[in-house]
Amino acid sequence: MALYEHVFLARQDLSPQQVEALVEQYKGVIEAGGGSVGRVENWGLKSLTYRIKKNRKAYYTLMDITAPAAAVNEMERQQSLSEDVLRFMTIKVEKHEEGPSAMLQKRDRDDRDRGDRGDRPRRDRDDRPPRSFDGDRGGDRGDRGPRRPREEAEGASA
């Protein structure tokens, strides 16, 4: 049997439980076709580079599959009919990777990077020096005198 990595994108308005149900459904299709599903990674809700079917975000899921081509084709056929799946891609590989995928490693690294900001002082808006304005701007009207309502100005000139 061949080895595959399969990634699919599910709609943003699904709940994580519904995404898990989709994974279980497609696992069943693969197992019914004589294959097996190894590692399943939920990468979570991520922003899309461009809109797909009016969605700006999607749930990403990776599946390592060991199955005959007919089982993978059936799963892809069902995904193409499903309204919940926006995109999918299957790649044939020589062997499955051990450990977390590059996406999960990146997310772990990003989480660690965000936690290291404790040593730098936080700068709030109140810490900024006040802005200096030009003297001719704002409330100072210069040599034009005080502003009068229009009726007074018209009555004085008549």
Brief synopsis:
33% of the residues lie in helices and 31% in strands. It is of the alpha+beta class and 158 residues long.
CATH class of the domain at 2-95: Alpha Beta
Please compute the radius of gyration using only Cα atoms.
Answer: 30 Å
Beta-strand share of residues: 25-35%
- The fourth-level CATH homologous superfamily of the domain at 2-95 is Ribosomal protein S6/Translation elongation factor EF1B
In CATH, the architecture of the domain at 2-95 is 2-Layer Sandwich
Number of helices: 4
* Helical residues, percent: 25-40%
- Low-confidence runs (pLDDT<50, min 5 residues)? none
How would you describe the overall organization of this protein?
The chain is α+β, with helices and mostly antiparallel strands and about 160 residues long. The chain has a domain at about 1-95: Ribosomal protein S6/Translation elongation factor EF1B (Alpha-Beta Plaits, 2-Layer Sandwich), CATH 3.30.70.60. About 35% of the residues lie in helices and about 30% in strands. The protein has 4 helices and 4 strands, in the order βαββαβαα. It has helices at about 15-30, 70-80, 100-115, 150-155; strands spanning about 1-10, 35-50, 55-65, 85-95. A 4-stranded antiparallel beta sheet has the order 2-3-1-4, with helices on one face. Helix 1 (about 15-30) packs antiparallel against helix 2 (about 70-80). The chain is elongated. The protein starts with a strand and ends with a helix. The mean pLDDT is about 80.
